[in-house]
Write a structure and sequence with these properties.
Tetracycline Repressor, domain 2, disordered N terminus, disordered C terminus
Length: 207
């Protein structure tokens, strides 16, 4: 008789259960704020054991970071449309989808909670906004490689400006986040900001 096969260590990760826990974490974050949110409360809301929670996340910072990353397309690769304008427009549209889609209210609530919690704001800055900056850097480096920009450009200011314009309409003016708005952001704000670093049309590569 063949010897019994040893059982694998631990249970396979249940992605749907994990997502339910992260959703509960974000709900609590919005309801009670970052400072009052606790791992124990998340476990109760998600109907999960504390052991399950701590086996996956050692602290609430880790849990919040992962929850936010899943809601802002952390694995997203910037679109390569073949030109800087097309790439920027695609990223602006994605940002709009993130804040105006099903998760929009959730993201707005998290940002409001961050305004009252320096610790949460630091977590978002280091793990979410910084990710947007890295994606922007990738986009601009590709443009430089295509010969559309003369030098490396720091994307942080561009990301801040784009997000500020989106949230101004979303939270203040109520104006539509439509294709006309995307064109306004790209053609009247982003590209003019980059104009000093753009390759003059006469010497721009056609490849």
């Amino acid at each position: 008789m063949s010897p019994p096969v040893a059982a694998g260590r631990g249970r396979p990760r249940d992605e749907s259960r994990e997502q339910a826990i992260l959703d509960a974490a974000l709900e609590l974050l919005i309801e009670v704020g970052y400072e009052r949110m606790s791992m124990v409360a998340v476990a109760a809301r998600a109907r999960a054991s504390k052991a399950t929670i701590y086996r996956r996340w050692s602290c609430k910072d880790e849990m919040v970071v992962e929850a936010l990353r899943r809601h802002v397309c952390a694995d997203h690769v910037p679109a390569d449309t073949g030109c800087l304008r097309g790439d920027v427009a695609a990223e602006v549209r994605l940002m709009i989808e993130n804040v105006s889609g099903p998760d929009g209210a959730l993201l707005v609530g998290v940002l409001r909670a961050a305004s009252e919690s320096p610790r949460l704001a630091a977590v978002i800055q280091a793990n979410v906004l910084q990710r947007k900056v890295e994606l922007g850097r990738c986009l601009l480096e590709r443009a430089a490689q295509r010969g559309e920009l003369l030098a490396k450009t720091e994307p942080a200011v561009l990301v801040e400006v784009i997000l500020a314009m989106i949230f101004a309409r979303l939270l203040v003016t109520g104006e539509p986040l439509d294709d006309a708005f995307v064109g306004h952001v790209v053609d009247e704000v982003v590209l003019p900001l980059l104009a000093g670093r753009a390759t003059p049309p006469a010497v721009r590569s056609n490849t």
